[in-house]
Amino acid sequence: MEVSRHPTSCGIKNLYPLLLNAILDDRVLLVKKWEGRVGAKEIEVCESMEMARTVLLSASPQAQHFMVLYNLYYTPAKIASWGKTMGIMCPRCGCPNADLCHMFFQCVKLKSLITGISDILKKILKQTIYLTPQMVLLGVDHAVYNSRDRYFLFIAMSVFRSCIASLWRDVEPPRFNQWFSRLLSMYHLENSLYELKGAAAGKRLTRVWAPFSAWLSGPREYVN
Ligand SMILES: [Zn+2]
Q1: How far does residue 172's CA lie from ligand 1's centre (Å)?
Q2: What is the pLDDT of residues 63-80, one digit of tens each?
Q3: Distance 165 CA to ligand 1 centre (A)
């Protein structure tokens, strides 16, 4: 029997396809829900699922993607739908019935973070970036970006969602530096994982992180 040199990374790699296969029958319903929430088309929902499987290497962002995709977060709107209405509101702005879209994008308290991220993404990708609810929640917007930039945006949005999720009940929203530090950590972690996987995987790393690597190695303003 062949023994993997890296059993943990192999286990992680297999987790997401298993989850997706388990819920394959729900896909039509899932697409309809996302069309209703953010106007996403079937191709975009499917691409989001595929990119979570192929672009994200670590288990934690994959699990977090699954939580968003299946609306498993305890949003104020979800709790209110169970009949609990007293004191159920967005912890940041006090909006009642705050849904997934509100908690990850529409909340007024997230505005400066989202603007900061858009600005830095514009510098990294050398084009104007319009973050939309679909882009933030699913990580994809098929009409706008080429495939190389879509990879990086998918990762950047995954890191953004993990920042929100980790401070779910905090009154203060995550700060820009928290997002950037997490993105940088993910870059270094994935560098290490790809190095373990060998040269072929290294080419993939170059492709997925190319815009960020180029920006990091070039002259840039101090990020604060
Ligand atoms: Zn809010």
Answers
A1: 10
A2: 889 899 989 999 999 988
A3: 14
Nearest-angstrom CA–CA distance, 64 and 138: 11
51 neighbors 156 (Cβ within 8 angstroms): no
Residue 39 Cα to ligand 1 middle (Å): 21
User: What integer pLDDT is reported at residue 90 of this predicted model?
Assistant: 95
Enumerate residues 6+ apart whose C-beta is below 8 A from 218.
none
d(CA 131, CA 104): 12
DSSP class of 127: S
Q: What residues of the chain score a pLDDT lower than 70?
A: 1-25, 143-144, 197-205, 220-224
CB 69 within 8 A of CB 46: no
User: If you measure from the C-alpha of residue 16 to the centroid of ligand 1, how many angstroms do you get, rounded to a whole number?
Assistant: 30
Q: How far is the CA of 195 from the centre of ligand 1 (A)?
A: 41
Residues 6+ apart with CB under 8 A from 192: none
- What is residue 3's predicted lDDT score, i.e. its pLDDT? 37
Q: Quote the ligand 1 centre to 92 CA distance (angstroms).
A: 5
